[in-house]
Amino acid sequence: MTNNTIIEGVDYGPLAALIGTWEGNKGMDRSPEPDGEEKNPYFETILFEAIGDVTNAESQTLAAVRYHQVVSRQSDQKVFHNETGYWMWDSNTNTLMHSLTIPRGVCVLAGGIYNASNTSPITLEVKAKLGDENWGIIQSPFMLKNARTVSFEHKISIEGDTLTYSESVGLEIYGKDFDHTDTNTLNRSN
Ligand code: HEM
Could you tell me the distance, in angstroms and rounded to a whole number, from the CA of residue 147 to the centre of ligand 1? Predict the structure, then answer.
């Protein structure tokens, strides 16, 4: 890992710290069950790739990082969460964006302002809320009715080759509110 945030002429700002393949086996998932919750220890791989920049309306430039996260249960070694999307960085406004999709029929566009004064660790923090016109959540009719995602918060901290994240997904499911959480610490393998 280098302190240089410019890759092939594109300035990725704090997102440069993400680039690489990360692995971690200390994950803990807390997810909803009809009679309460289940806790799933997990391991995972996340690949972050620098993919260049885009311009919007000839006035906004975003540096983009594409990622793919594959998560497996420790108990049976099977994949039980698969997620893909982008992290984007607008250096003019210090804005971070995180778009994600999961194969349950749920998409999120979360955003936040990067605090550049605190770089050790580098901390990326984004949020979205159902109904928010800026940073929102889209989901299928089935999910809206039966397993509604109402909020999303994601915080990643990176120090050298160690990445820690915590994620909180607010759900309305089985007639109650549930805080679906996931945390892990990963190391960069290349
Ligand atoms: C490491 C990340 C994650 C893991 C390991 C994980 C795992 C799980 C598990 C085990 C369930 C219960 C499934 C079942 O009972 O059949 C679940 C439910 C759910 N998750 Fe996640 N999840 C993760 C992240 C997310 C994210 C980022 C979102 C959305 C933004 C999300 C949305 C949901 C929803 C809507 C449900 C309810 C569906 C149901 O339980 O039937 N999850 N998740």
Answer: 10
Q: How far is the CA of 14 from the centre of ligand 1 (A)?
A: 27
Q: Is the pTM of the predicted complex or chain greater than 0.90?
A: yes
The whole-angstrom separation of Cα 190 and Cα 173 is 39
How far is CA 179 from each of CA 29, 54, 182, 184, rounded to the nearest angstrom?
11, 35, 10, 17
- Residue 16: strand, helix, or coil: helix
Q: How many domains does the chain have?
A: 1
Element (H, E) at 128: strand 122-129
DSSP code, position 89: E
Residue nearest to atom 36 of ligand 1 (CA): 147
* 72-120 pLDDT per residue, tens: 999 999 999 999 999 999 999 999 999 999 999 999 999 999 998 878 8
Nearest CA to ligand 1 atom 31: 169
* 1 domain-assigned: no
Give domain status of residue 144, yes or no.
yes
